[in-house]
């Protein structure tokens, strides 16, 4: 077995051992139990209706705290009941059905402006409308009640779970953040190995950096929006708050480990220092995820050896090593604090400060109103998806004799994504997963009897839930297998099932790809604006770091807020660059320039984190003249960034062998942006 295959196999094994498999098992049981029960009673219509209601709502059950899930359960059940009833009511008149579904599609897609959870509710609401068209229920009110009961059944299961385990999602997010931070530590440790190639190092660094920024944002949302966790009486809430704060501070310290590796390798060549630093950081990574006395003893031994090296080296090298050692000690202290948080009763002022880190949802009227314009990506995508639905409904009406023609609309709703690159990727995964799922289904149907087919369909449903958010192509295989087996048992006619599935999937994919040019959402034109926002955020972070004082709560708080903003802006820029890489007109852009600007802004952010770390220890890294130079360069860059032409082709100035510091990075940044 190749190393790549082993990696994929171990990832699958980890998934089935993880909480994702627990969620998948819960969802599978919640969907199939009412179906089995009501089929046993001889009420197939009830079984299908309640089963679909449970299936739809479980797909909206994103990680959240107790209050999030209670609100989402009520909102989802009410929306789904309304959508199911009104779609079923309009289905008898084609023109009315088209108008109803197009309006529902537009309104539910616009829910994306409120946040990820409402976006999921909107998407599943549209999919529910599609299922309703295919089912053609005779009694709209009765069908709406079935959907409501299915949603209520799942909500009771989900809310019971969150009531018994209120911090389950938060625990999972913290554990994942610990693993990702350890991975970043291990990567940084490799930088001290002279044998390790630094080619692609920065790209891997940035990917982990942005992944961690998103993880920290999730932790903040889960913890700070939970009124129960934030109340004074909640000891567990204080425990998780302290742990989360230490994790975020650890992230800053790990970022500060990012030094100029070529320079360090030259400085410490033949001194025996580099292997000691590498081993120390690797042991710290192990202590973060699997704390034990042996690893702690090993770290203490390595630390003593590094202290001995400080005494042996000349003053310049000893000073550099002492800086690294100080950073390593900070990381060690934070890891200890993460595993044994110091819970204190916070004041009202500290409670307000903590809530400053919560990113509010744009639910105000003015914020929502701004999205109803052609400048808003959500509005443009809503128009595109509504138009696609109209085209699909016209084709469905024309192909009224085709029993499974609603699969066309279903495919288009599921695979359509705002950006071109996301849509292409989703379409490829959908097609590949459908073909494999149909092939397995055909084999199963021709090999085993009905009882085994039903058992395998349940396994397919479990696979769908287990991989839906981590490996979409595998989840498509699971749901295709499950659907084909169930429909074959319920209705028969295997050839029509397979041929219709292939035909409407391919047609839906083709229409979705063509529609990306209708009300397009291109990321390339946004790059200059996003670059400006990153520069502004980094400049604000620099100013906050310069004003930072040891044990001064206000300045520490402002620096953390500025750091959070800079990480968010870097994440937005990186996502836009990744999306623009896959757009049709990507070859017209100056990609070496864009990649260099992204890297320099990332390095600037990391160096500011290093500065903040030293400021907290009353150690200044910069002279007044250097601070003036850096500010001038950043202000010049900001002035020119908005009008920067990213299509202009020119030879980039070489970085050379200059040291990696704030003065050099800001100077180089200013030169690149200068017209």
Automatic annotation (TrEMBL):
<feature type="transmembrane region" description="Helical">
    <location>
        <begin position="121"/>
        <end position="138"/>
    </location>
</feature>
<feature type="transmembrane region" description="Helical">
    <location>
        <begin position="72"/>
        <end position="89"/>
    </location>
</feature>
<dbReference type="InterPro" id="IPR032692">
    <property type="entry name" value="YccS_N"/>
</dbReference>
<dbReference type="GO" id="GO:0016020">
    <property type="term" value="C:membrane"/>
</dbReference>
<dbReference type="Pfam" id="PF13515">
    <property type="entry name" value="FUSC_2"/>
</dbReference>
<protein>
    <submittedName>
        <fullName>Uncharacterized protein</fullName>
    </submittedName>
</protein>
<feature type="transmembrane region" description="Helical">
    <location>
        <begin position="144"/>
        <end position="165"/>
    </location>
</feature>
<keyword id="KW-1133">Transmembrane helix</keyword>
<dbReference type="InterPro" id="IPR049453">
    <property type="entry name" value="Memb_transporter_dom"/>
</dbReference>
<feature type="domain" description="Integral membrane bound transporter">
    <location>
        <begin position="393"/>
        <end position="514"/>
    </location>
</feature>
<dbReference type="Pfam" id="PF12805">
    <property type="entry name" value="FUSC-like"/>
</dbReference>
<feature type="transmembrane region" description="Helical">
    <location>
        <begin position="46"/>
        <end position="65"/>
    </location>
</feature>
<feature type="transmembrane region" description="Helical">
    <location>
        <begin position="502"/>
        <end position="522"/>
    </location>
</feature>
<feature type="transmembrane region" description="Helical">
    <location>
        <begin position="471"/>
        <end position="490"/>
    </location>
</feature>
<feature type="transmembrane region" description="Helical">
    <location>
        <begin position="404"/>
        <end position="420"/>
    </location>
</feature>
<keyword id="KW-0175">Coiled coil</keyword>
<feature type="transmembrane region" description="Helical">
    <location>
        <begin position="378"/>
        <end position="398"/>
    </location>
</feature>
<feature type="transmembrane region" description="Helical">
    <location>
        <begin position="440"/>
        <end position="465"/>
    </location>
</feature>
<feature type="coiled-coil region">
    <location>
        <begin position="296"/>
        <end position="323"/>
    </location>
</feature>
<keyword id="KW-0472">Membrane</keyword>
<feature type="domain" description="Integral membrane protein YccS N-terminal">
    <location>
        <begin position="75"/>
        <end position="291"/>
    </location>
</feature>
<keyword id="KW-0812">Transmembrane</keyword>
């Amino acid at each position: 077995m190749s190393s790549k295959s082993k990696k994929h196999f171990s990832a699958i094994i980890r998934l089935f051992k993880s909480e994702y498999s627990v969620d998948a098992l819960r969802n599978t049981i919640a969907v199939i139990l009412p179906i089995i029960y009501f089929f046993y009673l001889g009420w197939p219509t009830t079984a299908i209706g309640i089963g679909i209601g449970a299936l739809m709502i479980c797909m909206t059950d994103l990680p959240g705290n107790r209050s999030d899930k209670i609100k989402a359960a009520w909102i989802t059940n009410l929306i789904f009941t309304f959508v199911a009833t009104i779609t079923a009511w309009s289905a008898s008149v084609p023109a009315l059905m088209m108008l109803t579904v197009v309006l529902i599609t537009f309104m539910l897609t616009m829910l994306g402006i409120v946040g990820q959870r409402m976006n999921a509710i909107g998407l599943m609401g549209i999919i529910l409308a599609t299922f309703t068209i295919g089912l053609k229920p005779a009694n709209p009110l009765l069908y709406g009640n079935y959907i409501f009961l299915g949603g209520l059944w799942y909500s009771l299961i989900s809310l019971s779970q969150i009531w018994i385990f209120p911090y389950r999602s938060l625990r999972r997010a913290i554990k994942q953040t610990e693993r990702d931070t350890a991975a970043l530590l291990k990567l940084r440790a490799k930088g001290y190995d002279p044998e390790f190639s630094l080619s692609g190092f920065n790209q891997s660094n940035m990917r982990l950096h942005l992944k961690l920024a998103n993880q920290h944002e999730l932790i903040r949302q889960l913890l700070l929006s939970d009124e129960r966790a934030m109340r004074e009486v909640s000891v567990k809430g204080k425990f998780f708050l302290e742990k989360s704060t230490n994790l975020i501070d650890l992230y800053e310290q790990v970022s500060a480990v990012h030094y100029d590796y070529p320079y360090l390798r030259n400085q410490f060549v033949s001194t025996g220092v580099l292997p000691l630093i590498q081993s120390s950081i690797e042991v710290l990574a192990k202590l973060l995820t699997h704390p034990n006395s042996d690893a702690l003893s090993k770290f203490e031994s390595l630390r003593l050896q590094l202290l001995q090296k400080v005494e042996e080296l000349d003053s310049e090298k000893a000073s550099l090593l002492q800086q690294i050692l100080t950073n390593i000690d900070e990381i060690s202290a934070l890891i200890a604090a993460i595993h044994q948080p110091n819970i204190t009763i916070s004041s009202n002022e500290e409670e307000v400060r903590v809530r400053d880190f919560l990113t509010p949802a744009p639910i105000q009227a003015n914020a929502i109103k701004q999205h109803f314009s052609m400048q808003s990506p959500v509005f443009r995508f809503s128009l595109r998806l509504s138009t696609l639905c109209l085209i699909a409904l016209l084709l469905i009406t024309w192909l009224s004799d085709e029993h499974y023609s609603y699969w066309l609309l279903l495919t288009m709703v599921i695979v359509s994504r705002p950006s071109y690159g996301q849509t292409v990727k989703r379409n490829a995964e959908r097609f590949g997963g459908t073909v494999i799922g149909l092939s397995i289904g055909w084999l199963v149907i021709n090999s085993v009897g009905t009882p085994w087919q039903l058992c395998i369909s349940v396994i397919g449903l479990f696979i769908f839930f287990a991989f839906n958010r981590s490996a979409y192509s595998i989840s498509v295989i699971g749901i295709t297998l499950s659907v084909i087996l169930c429909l074959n048992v319920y209705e028969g006619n295997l050839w029509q099932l397979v041929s219709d599935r292939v035909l409407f999937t391919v047609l839906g994919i083709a229409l979705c790809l063509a529609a990306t040019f209708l009300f397009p959402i291109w990321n390339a034109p946004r790059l200059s604006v996003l670059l400006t926002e990153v520069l502004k955020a980094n400049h604000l972070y620099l100013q906050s770091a310069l004003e930072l004082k040891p044990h001064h709560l206000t300045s520490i708080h402002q620096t953390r807020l500025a750091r959070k903003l800079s990480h968010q802006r870097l994440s937005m820029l990186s996502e836009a660059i990744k999306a623009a890489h896959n757009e049709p007109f990507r070859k017209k852009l100056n990609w070496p320039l864009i990649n260099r600007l992204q890297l320099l802004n990332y390095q600037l952010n990391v160096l500011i984190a290093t500065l903040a770390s030293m400021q907290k220890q009353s150690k200044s890294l910069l002279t007044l003249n250097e601070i003036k130079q850096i500010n001038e360069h950043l202000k010049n860059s900001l002035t020119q960034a908005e009008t920067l032409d990213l299509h202009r082709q020119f030879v980039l100035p070489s970085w050379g062998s200059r040291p990696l510091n704030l003065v050099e990075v800001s100077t180089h940044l200013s030169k690149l942006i200068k017209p």
